[in-house]
Here is the input.
Amino acid sequence: MKISEVQEKILKLKKEQDICILAHSYQSREIVEIADYTGDSFQLSLMAQKTPQKKVIMCGVRFMAETVKILSPEKTVILANPEAGCPMAEQMDKQMIESIKKDFPDYTVVAYINTTAELKTVCDVCVTSSSAVKIVNAIDNKNILFIPDCNLGDYVAKQVKDKNIKLLHGGCPIHAGISVKEAKDAKAKYPDALLLVHPECIPGVVAEADYVGSTSGIMDYASKSGAKEFIIGTEMSIAEHLQYAHPEKIFHILSKKLICVNMKLTSLMDVLNSLKGAGGEEINLDETTIRDARKCIDEMIRLG
Ligand code: 13P
Ligand code: SF4
Here is the structure.
């Protein structure tokens, strides 16, 4: 079957069954094209709440599908490719954070949304890369334990100077794998380009950037900027989506290493099979996990 034929089948089945398809912006072009909503983690979590459909297919990684289920427990939530996980989300577990909390009882535990539902149950508030600074600022406690991404945490700590932010050693292997040398080399190779990076990159790379922001922050900045040339310091699909949206501008990838294999696992056929009930995995979380994890996501929405 051709890509366009699969897309047509998906659109037809989706309409007949009244199913919502959510896609993170790191998904491939052909998936973004058939999705009802595309966005960064924060936008998807809001969409998860608002969408009226009773069934949702998530094209992204497991923690994103879990977030949809936590916010809409009455909905059927399918992760289109069950193998798609986020290695950062699995770096820290509930037992580890519970034992660290004993040593820091007066700290508010802030969890990046890239964490498992189980881990969220022992955290106080979630953040996404686009909401982190605003939310940490709004927390009514000086002492913050920020998990798991020490690079995003460092970025937040530099913006929120009046808080005591404790970090643990976690992060995204894809973004954190980019070196300062690579950033400097890319700038030297494309001297007229602006460097836009995600705050999951290491502090030295962030320091080289002209703009730092979430995936949608980077896309908005590049779209609205009067500049013509950009180096994109996040998952390489963003450079591709931007190039389609703005053929008159030039987008370079910061590094060939910026490819998230987990985000790339989902194929159009996975989506089609999920619609047919012949693929994907239904996300099931027990009531207690949903209730406790939800407090931390609701707090993010309240403060954000
Ligand atoms: P955002 O979508 O919040 O920018 O996060 C990037 C990411 O790595 C998602 O897994
Ligand atoms: Fe996880 Fe990094 Fe992939 Fe995002 S890009 S899903 S944080 S591994």
In short: Residues 25 and 39 are 5 Å apart (CA to CA). The longest strand covers residues 19-24. The first helix runs from residue 3 to 17.
